[in-house]
Amino acid sequence: MYEAIYIVLGCLFVKHWYIDFVDQDAEEVAAKGTYLKWAGIRHSLKHGVGTLLMLMVCSIGFYVSLFLALVDFILHYHIDWTKMNFGNRDITTPQFWNHLGLDQLAHYIVYLFIVWCLF
Q1: pTM, whole model, 2 decimals?
Q2: CA atoms lying within 13 Å on the CB side of residue 23
Q3: DSSP 78-100
Q4: Torsion sign, CA atoms 10, 15, 18, 19
Q5: How far apart are CA 99 and CA 88, in angstroms?
Protein backbone atom coordinates (compact mmCIF):
# COMPACT_ATOMS: atom_id res chain seq x y z
CA MET A 1 0.00 0.00 0.00
CA TYR A 2 2.82 2.44 0.81
CA GLU A 3 4.13 2.08 -2.72
CA ALA A 4 0.77 3.19 -4.11
CA ILE A 5 0.71 6.21 -1.81
CA TYR A 6 4.20 7.24 -2.95
CA ILE A 7 3.29 6.77 -6.61
CA VAL A 8 0.12 8.87 -6.34
CA LEU A 9 1.90 11.61 -4.38
CA GLY A 10 4.81 11.57 -6.83
CA CYS A 11 2.45 11.91 -9.79
CA LEU A 12 0.59 14.80 -8.12
CA PHE A 13 3.88 16.56 -7.26
CA VAL A 14 5.18 16.27 -10.83
CA LYS A 15 1.83 17.46 -12.19
CA HIS A 16 1.92 20.42 -9.84
CA TRP A 17 5.49 21.40 -10.78
CA TYR A 18 4.73 21.19 -14.50
CA ILE A 19 1.51 23.20 -14.46
CA ASP A 20 2.62 25.80 -11.89
CA PHE A 21 6.20 26.37 -13.07
CA VAL A 22 6.56 25.20 -16.68
CA ASP A 23 3.15 25.58 -18.32
CA GLN A 24 1.76 28.68 -16.57
CA ASP A 25 1.74 31.78 -18.78
CA ALA A 26 1.86 35.48 -17.89
CA GLU A 27 -1.87 35.94 -18.57
CA GLU A 28 -2.72 33.24 -16.01
CA VAL A 29 -0.39 34.77 -13.42
CA ALA A 30 -1.94 38.22 -13.91
CA ALA A 31 -5.51 36.90 -13.77
CA LYS A 32 -5.24 34.81 -10.61
CA GLY A 33 -5.87 37.84 -8.40
CA THR A 34 -9.18 38.80 -10.05
CA TYR A 35 -12.00 36.55 -8.90
CA LEU A 36 -13.55 34.48 -11.72
CA LYS A 37 -11.29 35.90 -14.44
CA TRP A 38 -11.04 33.22 -17.13
CA ALA A 39 -7.23 32.89 -17.32
CA GLY A 40 -7.05 32.28 -13.57
CA ILE A 41 -9.81 29.69 -13.82
CA ARG A 42 -7.99 28.11 -16.78
CA HIS A 43 -4.83 27.70 -14.70
CA SER A 44 -6.71 25.92 -11.92
CA LEU A 45 -8.71 23.90 -14.44
CA LYS A 46 -5.42 22.60 -15.84
CA HIS A 47 -4.61 21.43 -12.32
CA GLY A 48 -7.96 19.69 -12.03
CA VAL A 49 -7.54 17.96 -15.41
CA GLY A 50 -3.97 17.03 -14.52
CA THR A 51 -5.12 15.54 -11.23
CA LEU A 52 -7.83 13.59 -13.03
CA LEU A 53 -5.28 12.19 -15.50
CA MET A 54 -2.72 11.38 -12.80
CA LEU A 55 -5.29 9.55 -10.69
CA MET A 56 -6.58 7.64 -13.72
CA VAL A 57 -3.01 6.62 -14.63
CA CYS A 58 -2.68 5.35 -11.05
CA SER A 59 -5.76 3.13 -11.61
CA ILE A 60 -8.08 5.12 -9.37
CA GLY A 61 -11.72 4.79 -10.46
CA PHE A 62 -13.13 7.46 -12.77
CA TYR A 63 -15.80 8.93 -10.48
CA VAL A 64 -13.51 9.06 -7.45
CA SER A 65 -10.81 10.63 -9.64
CA LEU A 66 -13.28 13.15 -11.06
CA PHE A 67 -14.51 14.15 -7.59
CA LEU A 68 -10.97 14.60 -6.24
CA ALA A 69 -9.94 16.49 -9.38
CA LEU A 70 -12.84 18.87 -8.80
CA VAL A 71 -11.70 19.33 -5.18
CA ASP A 72 -8.17 20.10 -6.43
CA PHE A 73 -9.49 22.57 -9.02
CA ILE A 74 -11.62 24.48 -6.51
CA LEU A 75 -9.00 24.56 -3.77
CA HIS A 76 -6.15 25.40 -6.16
CA TYR A 77 -8.13 28.34 -7.49
CA HIS A 78 -8.84 29.74 -4.03
CA ILE A 79 -5.32 29.16 -2.69
CA ASP A 80 -3.88 31.06 -5.68
CA TRP A 81 -6.47 33.84 -5.39
CA THR A 82 -5.64 34.23 -1.70
CA LYS A 83 -1.90 34.42 -2.40
CA MET A 84 -2.40 37.04 -5.10
CA ASN A 85 -4.65 39.20 -2.91
CA PHE A 86 -2.98 38.88 0.47
CA GLY A 87 0.58 37.83 -0.35
CA ASN A 88 3.61 39.99 -1.03
CA ARG A 89 4.44 40.35 -4.75
CA ASP A 90 7.91 41.90 -4.45
CA ILE A 91 10.38 39.09 -5.17
CA THR A 92 13.20 41.04 -3.51
CA THR A 93 11.63 40.68 -0.06
CA PRO A 94 11.71 37.73 2.33
CA GLN A 95 7.92 38.04 2.70
CA PHE A 96 7.43 37.14 -0.98
CA TRP A 97 9.36 33.91 -0.55
CA ASN A 98 7.55 33.13 2.70
CA HIS A 99 4.19 33.62 0.97
CA LEU A 100 5.24 31.58 -2.07
CA GLY A 101 6.35 28.79 0.24
CA LEU A 102 3.07 28.95 2.16
CA ASP A 103 1.16 28.80 -1.13
CA GLN A 104 3.07 25.71 -2.20
CA LEU A 105 2.61 24.12 1.22
CA ALA A 106 -1.15 24.67 0.97
CA HIS A 107 -1.22 22.92 -2.41
CA TYR A 108 0.77 19.97 -1.06
CA ILE A 109 -1.58 19.68 1.92
CA VAL A 110 -4.41 19.33 -0.62
CA TYR A 111 -2.47 16.45 -2.20
CA LEU A 112 -2.04 14.82 1.20
CA PHE A 113 -5.80 15.17 1.69
CA ILE A 114 -6.42 13.54 -1.70
CA VAL A 115 -4.17 10.62 -0.77
CA TRP A 116 -5.85 10.34 2.64
CA CYS A 117 -9.23 10.10 0.86
CA LEU A 118 -7.90 7.35 -1.38
CA PHE A 119 -6.08 5.23 1.19
Answers
A1: 0.95
A2: 15
A3: HHHHHHHHHS---TTSHHHHHHH
A4: negative
A5: 7
All residues at 6 or more sequence positions from 3 whose CB lies less than 8 Å from its CB, including other chains: none
Show the 3-state SS of 16-82. Answer: HHHHHHHCCCHHHHHHCCCCCCHHHHHHHHHHHHHHHHHHHHCCCCHHHHHHHHHHHHHHHHHHHHH
The span from the CA of 25 to the CA of 117, in Å, is 31
- Whether the Cβ atoms of residue 42 and residue 28 lie closer than 8 Å to each other: yes
- For residue 58, what are the CA distances in angstroms to 7, 31, 54? 8, 32, 6
Per-residue pLDDT 10s for the chain (119 aa) are 899 999 999 999 999 999 999 999 999 999 999 999 999 999 999 999 999 999 999 999 999 999 999 999 999 999 999 999 999 999 999 999 999 999 999 999 999 999 999 99
